[in-house]
Amino acid sequence: MVHKLSHNLSLLLLMGCTVLVACNDENSSNSLGELEEEDNPFGKANDVFTAAEWYPGGELGTTEKASYSAVAPGAASLGLETSFNKGEDFFEHLYTYSDEPRKGLGPAWVRSSCIHCHPSYGHGKRQTEYKANTIGNGYLLVIYHPNEAYTDDGVRYTVAPSSYIAEVTGMPQTKAMEPFKAPVDEKQISIEWKKVEGTMPSGLPLHFPDNEPFELIYPEVNIPVTAFNTNPKPTNYEVRLESTIGIYGTGLLDAISTEDMKAQYAAEAPYVSLNPAMWDANNNDWAASAYYTLADGTKAVKKFTYAMTRASLQDGAGANAIWNITNVTRSDRRYLYSTVAWAQAMSEDPEVISYIRQNGADASSLVHPYYADSDEGISQKVLNLLSMNTAAKGGDNYTAAFGEPEMNDKDYYDFMVWHRGLAVPAARDLDDATVQRGKKVFNQIGCATCHRPSWQTREDNYWVDNSIKAYAESKGLNPNNILPKFAYQTIWPYTDMVQHRLYMENDIRTGWCRTTPLWGRGLSLRLTGAEDRLHDCRARNEIEAIMWHAYSKQSDAYASALRFYNLSKEDRDAVVKFLRSI
Q1: Which of 41, 51, 271, 551 is deepest in the core (most CB within 10 A)?
Q2: CA-CA distance, 526 to 248, in Å (whole number)?
Q3: pLDDT tens-digit readout, 237-266
Q4: What are phi and psi of 325, to 5 degrees?
Q5: Strand ranges in 448-492 using DSSP code E only, listed in sequence order
Q6: Under 8 Å CB-to-CB from 195, ≥6 apart: which residues?
């Protein structure tokens, strides 16, 4: 019973959608401590917090600036700031069709820059309409088959559980270069925000016992079949939104060992149902599907994204996005992020063929590679080239068609130095009595079981992809020692790195969601004025995020959220102030 109560707020504040502050924000350069040394409580232990808790990223991973974009001391101490700053440039600026060094956009893409999705280095803002060019729209469209589907004549059949549709890419593209049409026409995408009315399914009203009200809203997304420029068009699908996750401190999470993650899973398994795709309850071990096959064939346990779909920072998160979001190729990904269904539709589209026939002969034309002497030849060439991700993954065929990789190995190396080297901002106000009370209550009601406060990193023997190996080889360097490392650090991310379920209305695909780290989230309101949270930005503040954990009695976090619901206003406010301080 005690453990059950401690487990409940299991995904407290999945603040996956917080919007963070730009690196050039005036506040980002301010030190968090401004008192004279003898009067400054920063970094000092007290009755509730240890001295180490002021440094959530450990000594190597924490910045004392109120910033989400600062270089980690561990990266700076290795002399990597020049590469860090160059990598930052790739994150902050737009990609184009042909301009160095950020060339290669298209022929279809999700966004034209990283910062579109991660405004000010963090989570996307809640949107009321889907426009890829909006800075702050961190939404990725999740288009998938429900667990059951129906044929045209109404016969029910089973499909792979919540599998992505095959007609568009897993991160669906809504932009394309002329003359091609975007795989999904974003003008036909609608986002409607609905309000929970009356009482929640758990039976709780939308106000606390002291009558202070709160609201819960959730998105309903619709994409009609006419929006898909594919052949075939998808059937039997549903749509959800997932907003981008903050990127600071990701290198520190990569340093958490698989052995320690396994111990956490094993500790939780007797008390709560774990995702069978990750944990084999019968054998008390990783499930076969918990392993991700990295680019060189190495098997590693998944740890990144809400859905736990990636296992290494160098083969996931930013490393993956710098390729598939912009469709910019590099030496180890010399092929397009596309689908055969889109290629087929473009090869059959009369407007596309007509445009290429009239404009494609000029070698300077963006569509020149698709040119041929007849409509039939144009169609076949379009089909071959746009589907090259499946027809021939890179190599000589791709080089002949498109030239050399668009992002060279050195540029990619700089990008990954930046990505791994982003620091976590130091904690704030840990000497405040209300913050201290908030931590005590947070622990008492069970939030810290799933929002595990701290981890100890080990050797941080990160996996290295082929692009970085190639760069290291060209310089005679050891690829295992040229990126920021965070070995033997006590870090305070407030996550158990495990997936749980909240059973929310229009929930995340599959229902399973990794406990999102809470570190640094409290700066969001101070620096941006917005604090949208949870995987789709449905929670506009901490209170809404917490109460979504109590929406259903099935929620892994229900008992803790119920305890929060029954707190006095003074204690509720203390928990919120604590969350804004870590």
Answers
A1: 551
A2: 17
A3: 999 999 988 889 999 999 999 999 999 999
A4: -70, -45
A5: 455-456, 490-491
A6: 215, 216, 217
